[in-house]
Amino acid sequence: MITELYAYLTNLPRWHIFAIFLIGYLIYYLIEVVKRPILAVSNGPFKKYLRKNIPILEMKFWPTFWCFESRAQTVFASIIRSNMMPNIDYRREVLTLKDGGEVALDWLETDCDSESPLIIILPGLTGESQAEYIKCLVMAANRTGIRTVVFNNRGLGGIELKTPRLYCASNSEDLSEVISHVKKLNPHVRIGATGISMGGLILGNYLANYSDEAKAILTAAKIISVPWDVNKGSDSIEQPYLNSMLGRHLAGSLCRTVRKYDILRNEEFDWDMDVVLQSKTIKEFDSHFTSKHFGYKDVHSYYAQATLHNKLHKIKVPLLCLSAADDPFQPLDAIPIKAAEKSSHVAILITARGGHIGFLEGWWPANKDQYMGRLFSQFFSAALFDSNNEFYRTSQLMMELNLQTSTSVPTTPISRSSSPIRKKSIPF
Ligand SMILES: *[C@@H]1O[C@H](CO)[C@@H](O)[C@H](O)[C@H]1NC(C)=O
Ligand SMILES: *[C@@H]1O[C@H](CO)[C@@H](O)[C@H](O)[C@H]1NC(C)=O
What is the pTM of this model? Predict the structure, then answer.
């Protein structure tokens, strides 16, 4: 018996080896990769509403079989979506801000009723309205009859920089102006907002810092792949080698953005553009440029101000967040699960896989209706059309809960840890 097994193993036909490998891979995939996402939310009206009205929350997330590793998801999602999403013919509006700066607002309202709901979308670090993940969301909204407007940050989307000022994650002044402007144009329409990655930080900071203004204008909000704890996120993206390659790619794209603008070069400025353009990581760039540009003492004070994980209790707009547990920009232990469970308005959906703005699913993910877009359109069509006023009533109950909980100020741990990223096992 043993000798026969030995003989078999030593003369294993090649296709047997292949089949054994494939079966092993399949078992691993089914047990370790396909998981039902976790929903971190307080036990209250928001949870009840989401569980009842957003069917995708109950389903397992099936990452693409041959591409579930986090960096692979991040990169392939971008490549595949770039190839399947045609450019969108937006109507461009150039908005002049209070200080004379200009931003481009790109509207998509084809065949939509002018009274139909509207979502303001904020792209990531150097993204603009033709970025593949933005088009994925814009099309998902368009399919459900919701209008969208993409807010391109200063200096992006092909708009010249009129004043020597760009944008940063901790400053929501521009967003506040844009949201008020959009509201003025659409006084009787329900408005939502979505931020992706750094756009999520800007939106989250807006919701926390301008909480009453936000509550008066926005019906619902969503945040995708945000680096909750910016310090931990920037440490994570510097880990060798694959993470740091992604980081270097983004740092390069930041340098290309600022290099274009002579208006940012001046002896009087606190930064030296020749040094800035040498930046190899996002943190170097923020240390040489962004933190000085916005008057912070150093990059750590900038990151401490930009970070979102300790501000959830200030938010008064129903906010659904999508984060992957394996996001290279976002270690799992930085996702504020406990704070979400104590908050009145924040729910975080955590998938075991998905990478950074990845969330690729299906055998060959050529389907335009991807996970990220499906969650987006299910949530916003429920919240913004709200034909039976259930979302409206839920929001009122959430405000009652907020008044009860806001009397007990939550303890916010100061986490400025420079310790190496802990690889906690995924609690699925
Ligand atoms: C948006 O949807 C409408 C149908 O409701 C369609 O006619 C239009 O082509 C869509 N726009 C884009 C850019 O896909
Ligand atoms: C918070 O909002 C106020 C206005 O309500 C603004 O003056 C202040 O600069 C904001 N702070 C940050 C950090 O954005």
Answer: 0.92
